[in-house]
Amino acid sequence: MGSKKKKSSIKKRILSKLLRHPGILFLFMAGVTDLATLWAFGINSGIGFFAGVACILGAIGWFLSRLLLGSDNLAREVLAEMKEEAQEDHNDKLDQLEKRLEEDGDPRTEKLLRGLREITEIFHESQSNSSPLNSSSTFDILTGVEQLFSRSVLSLEKTLQLWQTAQRISAAEARDPILEKRERIIEDVDKSIRQLGKILAGIQCLGTGADSEESDLARIREELNQSLEVAKNVEKRMKTLDRDLKRKQRTGG
Predict the structure, then answer these.
(1) pLDDT over 60 at 220, yes or no
(2) Model confidence at 111: pLDDT above 80
(3) Which of 115, 151, 125 is nearest to 203 (CA)?
(4) Rounded-to-integer distance, Cα 106 and Cα 87, Å
(5) Distance in angstroms (rounded) separating the CA atoms of residues 106 and 110
(6) Given this model, what pLDDT does residue 156 score?
(7) What is the pLDDT of residue 210?
(8) N or C end of the chain: smaller count of CB under 10 Å?
(9) 3-state secondary structure (DSSP) of residue 64
């Protein structure tokens, strides 16, 4: 379903891009203006009529030729634009999260988010530049990095929710366990960032020999898998905590 929706969106954007092309627009508008002028002033000019129709047909022909012959290039342009827009939206959401994290008065959470963003950006730059990895290894590692990044961001959002919940509870015996959970999540995110730094260093120091590189890549993937397992465990603990908090709210305990 999602794939069909994306294809439909790409087709619409290709058509929109073509219809907004300056050359096509100019020819079409020139033809329409010419014919409209002849009609409005009652001018009977075969040459004028022919010129107007020629411009309109030229615009249609240009549109169809670009659609049929240049569709691959147009699709790549549209995909690049969509990717850039998605990245801008993603960055905006992270900027908003960083501002919200300021609410807790704890500079560690904003610092952790900035660290996550910086190191993930470096991973992507290493992919587009002279990366020592082959395409398969790059995909595997970047996929793992993205998963770890997403889980870590969710963890930071949870620290804010826990802090907000703790502020509403006056009894220390009920509030302290929530803040302790929050501390553990912050520690886990910090470990994830350190692990990402270690993996990045490992990638940049890959050996030149085939055997050495293969063993290094296996080690890097193993380290990344371990980090993802830690992130999954954190996510499970957060879900358990959510259930506990909701149960206490229902029972008034």
Answers:
(1) yes
(2) yes
(3) 125
(4) 27
(5) 8
(6) 92
(7) 45
(8) N
(9) helix
